[in-house]
Predict the structure.
Amino acid sequence: MLRIMGYELKMLWRNNAVRTVLFGYIAAFIMTVWVGRDYLERELASQRWIEKQHQAEVQKWEKKENIDPGYLAYYLFMPTFQDPSPWSALFSGNRKAEYNNLRVRLLALHGQVYASDIQNTENNLLGSLDLGFLLIYILPLIIGFLSVNILADEIQTGRWSILSSQALSESHLLLSKLFVRFILVSLINIALWCVVTLWADIPWDKHWAFALALLQIYQGLWFALIGLIISWRGRPISNSLAFVCVWSLAAIIIPGALHLHTFSSYRSTDGLEVMIQQRQAMNDSWDKDRDTEFRRFLEAHPEWSATQPLGPSFHWKWYYSMQQLSDIVVQDAAKRYEGSRIEVARLTRSLAWLSPALVLELAWSQISQTDLESQMAYFRQLVNFHEALRNFYYPKFFFDAPMQPEHVKELPRFVYSSPESPLPWWAVWVLLAGILVFLMAIPLKSVVRFQKKPDGL
């Protein structure tokens, strides 16, 4: 067995096409990591620059003798960042298509959040090239190139009868050939995985081991499929066509159909509609009776009801209370919009078992915190931060609390708290079930035949 495996490995290495494909794969592996790492570095650099600009603005306000809190709340943008995980350099997920770097003011929050949907829609259409794309979609093709015709090619060249006569059985010989290729691909991926871990500053924790284990299981699933195709004992062209058809179905057609269905269900303009409704509600408030609208706000928020009545002139407490009312007007629409997105994510996950590529994509997005759940965690923290801003400013608006330059330093600061990302064990069971299905689909007569030593087809 070991002698046959050593011979097989030597023959693989002598094949120029195999060496070209493997070196090309290694180069693509490094390139995609470099692209993802560069994007992550630019994102972090942008955050540092925004924070530096914010500190400069704060210092300008601190030098003012008389500070109008209304002007401060209107003109001073507060930076908020969903700090990226180091894994996002490898698996970008939905991060580029979602808001994760917003500068907010005391104005209505929904109008600020959903204004980013215009740019995010363009990013969603463009997509991204990352390591996940290479491993999920290209790696199976490399596995197929290396393995799908190991029996048919040997029979056509006349070497099969000679090799099978030296093995315990055909099944041992085929398993040895497949095992050599599985080990070769696994060792290359493990070595590159370790290099990337050091390069991208990824912690060596349970998520690291789990993500690598998912990759190995994913490889095993495609090798199990190849074992099924080989059991049909078809010609090289038939085997290659069968593999490409299954790959197209599992990696392109099914995920594409699911994404098309979910994209039609989740129209990205819904967020823009919420923003337009909010701004329209705010604009309409200028034409309504100020006292009536202000009383409506105080009834909804009695904690500020001790404020003095509105005078004939403009007052910031009216302006910002109308901003909050416009947020309340679209609150139900915003909840429906976010709820529909969550339902779409749940639907996609529930149907992911139809495509191993989609299973791995969703699992790695969960590990890298680039999925919808992580983005929603940022949104919830953004809502809490906006509430903290109101609690800071409103006493100054409603009760005329003094605003001194040193109070600017007391403004709330947004600190993102990364949620604990659970390990996606569901993906393991789905992929293992796929391997079991492929193995059980191998015809019994082929298993019996491989136990013998025929001379050919």
Observations:
- Residues 453-457 have pLDDT under 50 and may be disordered.
- The two ends are 23 Å apart (CA to CA).
- The CA atoms of residues 81 and 247 lie 38 Å apart.
- Residues 16-62 form the longest helix (47 residues).
